[in-house]
Design a protein that fits this description.
The chain is of the alpha/beta class. It contains 22 helices and 25 strands. It is globular.
């Protein structure tokens, strides 16, 4: 998922010159149908390599120039028993010749590697869709393991679908018989056979996958060669078998994006790159103090590769140590970051409060997942908003920023850094598992497009006493931002006291004075309330009476639903929040313009609670907490009911 490509517009003219086009059979041998979009889901056991298969298909689709959106779906068990429903892993990819926003509601093609994969996913597959099954795995024992009394391949239950029974395992083993592998070793390449078959069906490029396999198995050239052979065998099977009489073309998204250099990117990778970019724009070293937790761990993995950019990563023994080290790095003058997910935020809450009291810049990246407690560690949710707002003792306000798409995670990371550095405060960034693992095309920005985040450290005395002597006051504030000075430890003359006990305004001395505490609490709140955030943009081309308001990863499904409604003649307005604390200053005025406000969330109504309390608006919640993102059709139906209501 890291291939760099030209703009889809630039790719369009050369689309027919790919290897796929060159290998196409003469007209009349097999039909080629043009489609505007396709949704494919690969599903199998957690050991079948479905995520790798999906990643490779996605990378080739990105290099071809299609717009795309993905939804990896991992099992919660580290290694569930093979062939069971809890062990099913899937990867859904939606790609198109136009701008798209979601991974799709339902797959047009399901590749099921075993009975468990078929049973776990068949409920999402519409009638008439294509189903490719690995018949070798449909044994009596495997069927019984997931509750099939008879094979669905034989009992007529799949008659409404376009079924393609393919002995993927047997064909793979046969293709690799000359490589000297054991049967078990050869069977591991069946996902590459399936990838080759799907690459033929949808005219995907092949060079990138073969290069990837050579690189991945560079130290095991025999394994690399076997996987490439299986991949080519799958392609050739599609070309020669009579079961697949049609292949499909989805043209590049020639007009979907501005001209530029694009690559496919996941949310966690975009966050990582955004943090590196922010540290360079601020001219500060980047420090990450973290403890591995799903689905945030990939940020730690990625940043650990970038020591050449002055990045230091520290894998701590626990969540508390991770944020403690990060806060220490902030005191020492670094752009400091800690990453976690819901349960980890709870453990970090005391140190976040300490950062509020010390007024130091610190980024806390919460990649939300299903809760409470361990909850659904591999599924997505938006249920940490109230924890981010209030999950600390005392009055400890923290700015909150939320990206809306995987690519937007890059910009959101830079925005969070801007706020932290400018206002000397910890900042919460709320991504989630859907954004973290999903991917889409991202235009690589030019350096001159990025904001200047340069920080001025305190260099000397900043206050004159009544007797004329000059001293350093660590809590003397910038009159515009209310930020206190950032003094690097060891700077002569700037010695000052830090810690969690209340400080006296200005001097920073320990203070138990009630009036001073009241003043400091209100000042810290005023600093957060005064953060400069853009006004909320409203998309309302027809003067609607109903507004749908979202935040975070609901952007794609909401926008797709709004497009459907407008295409059918309905009038509806849409707005999406990036800044959740403080809210944009015009939010109250926007809400009052509409008769009905609907807030879809993957929680039980947390933003709606905040909006009702602050603006006294009767906002209506539409909620889902099943660990999966909203479907566009589902939201369109709910919004239509709101419009009619």
């Amino acid at each position: 998922m890291t291939s760099q490509v030209s703009s889809p517009a630039e790719q369009a003219d050369g689309a027919d010159s790919t290897l796929v086009g060159e290998q196409r059979k003469p007209a009349g041998v097999k039909d080629v149908q043009r489609l505007d979009r396709v949704i494919i889901r690969f599903a199998g056991d957690s050991g079948d390599g479905m995520q790798l298969t999906g990643d490779r298909f996605t990378s080739e689709t990105a290099s071809f120039g299609n717009d795309l959106s993905t939804l990896p779906n991992f099992p919660a068990e580290i290694r569930a028993p093979a062939g069971t429903l809890p062990g099913v892993s899937s990867f859904q990819l939606h790609f198109a010749d136009h701008d798209i926003l979601t991974p799709g509601d339902a797959p047009n093609v399901l590749v099921a590697m075993n009975p468990a994969a078929l049973k776990a996913n068949i409920g999402d597959v519409p009638r008439g869709a294509e189903i490719i099954v690995n018949t070798d795995e449909f044994t009596k024992r495997a069927l019984q393991k997931v509750g099939y009394s008879a094979s669905p391949l034989d009992d007529g239950s799949l008659d409404g679908y376009s079924l393609h029974p393919v002995p993927l395992t047997t064909l793979t083993v046969e293709a690799l018989k000359d490589f000297g592998l054991t049967r078990k070793e050869a069977e591991r390449s069946k996902n590459m056979f399936a990838l080759g078959l799907l690459s033929w069906m949808y005219h995907r490029p092949t060079e990138g996958t073969e290069k990837f396999l050579k690189t991945k198995f560079a130290k095991k050239p025999d394994i690399a060669a076997a996987n490439i052979a299986a991949f080519r065998a799958g392609w050739n099977f599609g070309e020669t078998t009579e079961d697949f009489a049609v292949s499909y073309e989805v043209a590049p998204a020639a007009t979907a994006f501005p001209t530029g250099t694009y690559r496919n990117i996941s949310g966690n990778l975009a966050l990582s790159y955004g943090l590196v970019a922010a540290s360079r724009q601020a001219d500060l070293p980047l420090f990450l103090g973290s403890y591995p937790i799903t689905p945030a761990s990939d940020i730690l993995h990625e940043l650990s590769r970038h020591k050449n950019f002055g990045v230091r990563t520290f894998q701590a023994e626990d969540e508390i140590a991770g944020i403690g080290a990060a806060l220490g790095a902030a005191f020492g003058g670094s752009l400091a970051v800690t990453t976690t997910s819901g349960p980890g935020v709870a453990l970090k809450s005391e140190t976040i409060g300490l950062a509020v009291s010390m007024e130091l810049p610190l980024l806390v990246l919460d990649i939300q997942r299903g809760g409470p407690s361990t909850g659904l560690p591999t599924k997505t949710e938006q249920a940490d908003l109230l924890q981010a707002m209030f999950g600390r003792n005392g009055e400890a306000p923290v700015p909150i920023v939320a990206p809306c798409t995987p690519a937007d995670c890059f910009d959101a990371a830079i925005e969070a850094a801007r706020i932290a550095l400018t206002y000397r405060t910890p900042v919460m960034l709320l991504s989630d598992g859907y954004l973290a693992n999903g991917s889409e095309p991202w235009r690589i920005p030019d350096i001159d497009e990025l904001p200047d985040l340069t920080v001025q450290f305190a260099q000397g005395p900043n206050h004159t006493l009544d007797d004329g002597s000059e001293v350093f006051w660590p809590y003397k504030r910038d009159p515009q931002t209310l930020a206190r000075p950032w003094a690097i430890p060891g700077t002569p003359g700037l010695e000052h006291r830090i810690g969690g006990i209340e400080k006296q305004d200005g001097t920073g001395n320990i203070s138990y004075d009630p009036a001073n505490h009241d003043f400091m609490v209100r000042t810290r709140q005023a600093k957060i309330d005064g953060i400069d955030v853009p006004d909320l943009d409203v998309d309302d081309p027809h003067g609607a009476r109903t507004l749908v308001l979202g935040w975070g990863s609901t952007f794609g499904p909401i926008t797709a639903a709004v497009r459907r409604l407008r295409a059918s003649g309905e009038s509806i307005a849409q707005a999406h929040l990036r800044h959740l604390n403080p809210f944009p200053r015009n939010l109250g005025a926007v809400l009052k313009r509409y008769d009905r406000v609907v807030i879809p969330e993957m929680n039980l109504g947390q933003l709606a609670t905040l909006v009702r309390a602050k603006y006294l608006v009767d906002a209506h919640s539409y909620n889902q907490v099943n660990g999966m993102p909203f479907k566009a059709e589902q939201l369109a139906t709910a919004l239509k009911e709101a419009i009619d209501g």
